[in-house]
């Protein structure tokens, strides 16, 4: 399982792993892939600084990446506004009533009430500034192409830039803006995702951007067979995310006992694409919380970043409740394969061995 990206980044396998956990990212990099740390959860730059220092020291000198959330269009106003004051009262009341109906207890006074500020453009830029003081080999942007000055700054530091695309036209725009690697994220993926399924999207993006721009297939990838399928469609590697939520290392980040119960019992049909998490369409685990937002009389989700600010405390309360029936979890359709909690090294080994078995089986068909 090699592609030109392996030589470019000094990795053994072209398996890129997005994760909010530094423990998962480090384990993937040590196992021969490229762990990519999601930074949106960091409200304090000091915490991100400590985390990236930990990654520097715990990856055995192997490369890693960083993922930020930054729109290409730079906001020209609103940075001094009280965003909380822009949230309608009816939305706040709906959240309060829903949590009460679901039996979600309040948090202890003073705990977990701040929203995730990483969705704000200014905070994402601070994440980039911190990352550039460390040694990532890749900066990925979850919202497509970052602003031109960000791309230029990364290139000045010798860092490649990747961007997620849900359509071929978006990929072409990103390449025109200087993005080096396109992540073709299909409809099956967890978190922010588009309308087109991976089987259709990956070859469309590969053909659109041409042979000189590497494409990573994403969405619905959790086995070696799916890695092989993505590369057969023209991708030079894969971008994975949901599959790492079911690893032992990820449990260092979550204290919710209902977390593993929620995903190990779920089927591939137990997800929903909705705007209730951030204000943009994202695939989540289908629970009583997501269903409440789909009921008649529920308000429409607010645009990013207001929706996240609205539900931030609610998600903290839900996660602290340990109730798998209400948990709010971005996750893809691959959740149907996540039936047990395993070490990262075992997941990587299975991805590689099944890939090799698949390619060998296909080779026999040529005889």
TrEMBL record:
The keyword Protease is annotated on this UniProt entry: no
Organism: Nocardioides nanhaiensis
InterPro entries hit by this protein: Aldolase_TIM, NMO
UniProt entry keywords in alphabetical sequence: Flavoprotein, FMN, Monooxygenase, Oxidoreductase
Gene Ontology molecular-function annotations: monooxygenase activity
Matching Gene3D superfamilies: Aldolase class I (3.20.20.70)
Name of the protein in its database record: Nitronate monooxygenase family protein
PANTHER family: 2-NITROPROPANE DIOXYGENASE, MONOOXYGENASE RV1533-RELATED
Spans through the membrane: none
Keyword Oxidoreductase: yes
